[in-house]
Structures are given as C-alpha cells and as structure tokens.
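For reference, the entry.
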Amino acid sequence: MKDKLSPELLDRIDEQIKAITNATDIQTTSAAYDEAMTIINKENAKADIDEKAAKVTAEIDSNDKLAAETKNRLKQQIKNDSQKAKDKIDAVNAPKGDTSKKKEQIEKIKDTAKADITSAGNAAKNESISSLRADANNELAAKYQKAVAELKENLAKMLTPPMLIRHTTNTHR
C-alpha cells in the first residue's frame, strides 16, 4: 500500500510515528497512533473500493452484449458511487481517540460502496441476460416461422391435384 500513498500522506504518517517515538505521555502517543491508523484505514478502504470498481468496470467493458450507452451509464454510476464513498471516508474524524470506532465507520462505508458497485455489475449482467433471451426468442421465432413455412410447402405438395385424384379413387374401392 505504501507505494499507493501520496507523499503528503506518507509525510503525515511519518510525523505521527515520530510523535509516538518522541511522546512523553500516553495522550500524545494515543493521538498520534489514532491519526496514523486512521490514515492507513482510510487509504486501505479507498484502495479496496478502487479495486472493486476497476474489476466491475473491466467486466462491463468486456461485455459485448451491452450497448455503449449502457456501458457508459453503468461505468459513470460506478465512478460516482466510488467517489461519493471515498469522500465520506475522508470525512470520518470522530470519535477522537477511538481508532476502532472510526475503522468501523470506514468499513461500513467501504462495504456499502462495494455493494453499490456490485449492483451496477449485476445490472450489466441482467441486461446481458435480457439481451441473450431476446436474441434466443428471436432465433426461435425465426426457426418456428421457417418450420411452419416448410410444413405448409410440403403439405401443399402432398395435396396437389394428381395426389388428390389418386387419393380419392383409392378410397372408393
């Protein structure tokens, strides 16, 4: 994760590590620990959201049954949901000194975002299934029409006048 953090965030974490190292009381140590862990928890959650968004976006892009407009709409929804969640994660700052409660809030936001992203992926799959069903129904209807036409043609051949005459003369004997 360290390679994904901005220099600014790395500097903030380093500052907190120095504060812990140089602390002379428990309050300073706890505050520095809380700050550093909250940064790490936030960045981990945002990275998870980005990973999920990239995976689902790639699935949508590779789905050849979706129209470009649908793909763009779903990808924009994923982008919006991801950004909204990351903004909420960035806003988590309470309760002060309670790292685990902040982490719970962050995890809840992350899980909701990932569920929203999955929902967009499922919508893409559902649209694909609908498209496949429509294609299958159209193919089946075409085959049905062809079979009916062949049946009518064969029936017409069977009922031509020479066959009718032979058929009627054979029934009177």
